[in-house]
Amino acid sequence: MFQRRRHILRRFQNLIDAVLTVTVFGAVYLFRDNLARISFLYDLGDLLRFEHYAPLMLIAALLWPITLNYHGLYDPTRLRKAFVNIGMIFRSSVESTLILMVIIFLFQIETISRLFLIGFGFTNAFVLIVKDLIRRQYALNKRLKERDIRSVLVVGTRESAAQMIRKIREESYLGIKVVAVVLPREEEGLQELEDVSIVGTLKDWRYVLHEHPVTSVIFTIHREYMNEVEEALSICQEEGVEAWLLANIFTWNLTRVEVDHFASTPILIFRTTPALTWPYITKMLVDRLLALFLFFLLSPLLLIISLCIFMTSGRPILYKQRRIGRFARPFELYKFRTFNIEGTKPTKFGLWLRNSSLDELPQLINILRSEMSFVGPRPHIPEEVKRYTEPWQRRRFSVIPGLTCYRQISRPGKIPFDEALALDLKYIETWSLWSDFFLIFKTTASLLKRINLRKKGDACI
Predict the structure, then answer these.
(1) Do 91 and 206 sit in the same domain of this protein?
(2) Which of 101, 191, 410, 446 is 20 to 30 A (C-alpha) from 438?
(3) CA 2, CA 23: separation in Å to the nearest integer?
């Protein structure tokens, strides 16, 4: 429920900011166009017809909400100080304006006024700041007047109920007020928890509901009380009281717990890998599109390397090696062959390929076949998989393997096998789209640095 509420609030703010951005763009265009017609002012020159600016306006309407969301402005769980939000909006506006200027530079759109874009960027920042200050004041007023506050009963043991009350108070943005506490069984001498009155036990459940009318009930009880909770849930359903049952029945230390439906039946999903969310879908799309683009862009280089391998050591051009991928499924990993046909020693051209990492280029085929990604733990050969001694090490199989990961940008030299596996798990447990971009950037920088050092070494020789 809270995720849905946050999602709706975020999308609503996205829509408002997009509409404001379009409005400001049109207003600045009209102002600038009319200003140019005033003869006694400095000759600013006429703007092109609005049709030429309309595509840029639509891009701006998408760009501003994206950058604002990236900087965390739309996080409804936090009511930050005003100057913090102002800083976020200003940074986002500067970044968005620069991106628009880069777009017109890359596409060589010389007819678009840079001065107009700068004026629009600062005006839009001002309007969005004013809007955010109004929104913030409205949220503060609601909190002070306690409007839209949910009154709830917390049902749980001494420890679990106290913990829930503390969490509710910490997350004040939720607008929840704990009216009273109900224990599963009576505890002598205990009359309140965290300054909240204890009004009874589950034996008196129907009486408690009648005496303390609330909007919702939160059950935070462990497995040993499930029979009592089931009866209490039945009474809530009978009397039309909304009930929330915390999904803490199991105490596994898993990364993600999700609620879903299967054949109209609610289910809990325990996962340690990213769900099929928009960031993950974006990762998959970027993998395929970028691999396809690079494959065509580098096709002359791929052809030249293939011819060089054929002329220096014959066929085959590609070397195939069995690796273990996602869900422990084996697949054939492709590389340019760098050894002689007998496989006893590397060729001179093969050594150059390996030192420059160009022998890895055929793995674009693996990415196009959805067997690999640009970023992810390097796939192991079956012999390495046999070295897995701990169950947690097999969690590598829960994600698609990739060309680079934390291991490839860590300290130079060989690191212990277990430490390398731990770095792979770090990627799995902390994955985000931005961590992928970071790893691509670091890998590219590391590769260029390595090539530069080799060039200097060759020059010294």
Answers:
(1) no
(2) 101
(3) 31
Place of tokens 């749980």: 156
Q: Are strands 216-220 and 242-245 parallel, antiparallel or unpaired?
A: parallel
Q: Is residue 302 part of a domain?
A: yes
Say how many domains are in the chain.
3
Phi-psi region of 45 (alpha: psi -120 to 50; beta: other; left: phi over 0): left
Helix (H, G, I), strand (E, B) or coil at 272: coil
H helices present in 240-381, as ranges = 278-297, 299-313, 348-356, 363-368
Residue 401, SS3?
coil
Structure tokens at 344: 């006893």
Domain edge (last residue) among 216, 235, 251: 251
260: in domain:
no
8 Å CB contact between 354 and 346 = yes
Q: How far is CA 433 from CA 313, 387, 405, 426, 440, in A?
A: 41, 30, 13, 14, 11
Shared domain for 453 and 321, answered yes or no, is: yes
Residue 268 in any domain: the answer is: no
Are residues 446 and 361 part of one domain?
yes
pTM attached to this predicted model? 0.56
160 and 293 co-located in one domain:
no
Nearby residues of 151 by Cβ (< 8 Å), 6 or more positions away? 177, 179, 214, 215, 216
Tens-of-pLDDT digits for all 461 residues of the chain? 555 666 677 788 888 999 999 999 988 888 876 665 554 444 545 556 777 778 888 999 999 998 988 887 876 555 567 788 888 899 999 989 998 888 888 777 767 778 888 889 999 999 999 998 888 787 767 665 555 577 899 998 888 889 889 888 877 666 788 999 999 888 877 788 888 999 988 888 989 888 888 888 999 877 778 888 888 988 888 888 888 887 565 555 555 667 776 666 777 677 766 666 778 888 999 999 999 999 999 999 999 999 999 998 888 999 999 999 988 899 999 999 999 888 788 888 989 898 888 999 999 999 999 999 999 999 999 999 998 888 888 888 889 999 999 988 876 667 888 888 889 988 988 888 888 989 998 888 887 777 666 655 555 55
Q: Which of 401, 362, 357 shows the shortest CA–CA distance to 379? A: 401
- Whether 64 contacts 92, CB under 8 Å: yes
Residues 6+ apart with CB under 8 A from 209: 153, 217, 235, 236, 239, 241
- Classify residue 263: in a domain, yes or no: no
Domain that holds residue 361: 278-460
Point out which residues pair with 220 in neighbouring strands.
156
Cα 449 to Cα 253: distance, rounded to the nearest angstrom: 40
- Based on the fold, state whether residues 303 and 432 are members of the same structural domain: yes
Kindly calculate the radius of gyration of the chain based on its CA atoms and give it in whole angstroms.
30
